[in-house]
């Protein structure tokens, strides 16, 4: 059974997780003066808190839908991170990254048919 509200909750969690990955990636690209400052700074802590919220959204969403739909919806996150990396971090969309994003979306479409 596929409940629309559960799908929307799961998609919200996927979007939160994608933005947390971007936040963690920006933190990894910075230089830090000490070992602990590299892992205990605002960006890293907030990024992991966002991942925790995303996990809680996923748990909440799974209570209203079959488990087989979860991985399909979660796969959107990988494509979203690739797109956000290009838009926010100004990374290049290589042919390989574009092909991977298209394959993820095509797989989701095939799964939904």
Summed up, what is this model?
This protein has 113 residues and is mostly helical.
Structural summary, described in words:
One of its GO terms (molecular function) is transmembrane transporter activity. InterPro entries: EmrE-like, Small_drug/metabolite_transptr. This protein has 113 residues and is an all-alpha fold. It has one domain. It is built from six helices and no strands. Helix 1 crosses helix 5. The radius of gyration is 16 Å and the shape is flat.
| Count of separate structural domains | 1
Percent of residues in helices comes to over 70%
Shape: flat
Mean pLDDT across every amino acid position: 91
Residue stretches low in confidence (pLDDT < 50, at least 5 long) are none
Report Rg. Answer: 16 Å
| Fraction in beta strands | under 5%
Order of helices and strands: HHHHHH
- The total of helices stands at 6
Structural class: mainly alpha
Q: What's the N-to-C terminus distance?
A: 15 Å
Largest sheet: none
Number of DSSP strand runs: 0
Protein name: EamA domain-containing protein
Subcellular location: Cell membrane
Organism: Christensenella minuta
GO molecular function, one term: transmembrane transporter activity
Core attributes:
single chain; 113 residues; mainly alpha; transmembrane helix
Secondary structure layout:
Layout: H1 4-28, H2 35-39, H3 42-62, H4 70-74, H5 76-87, H6 95-112
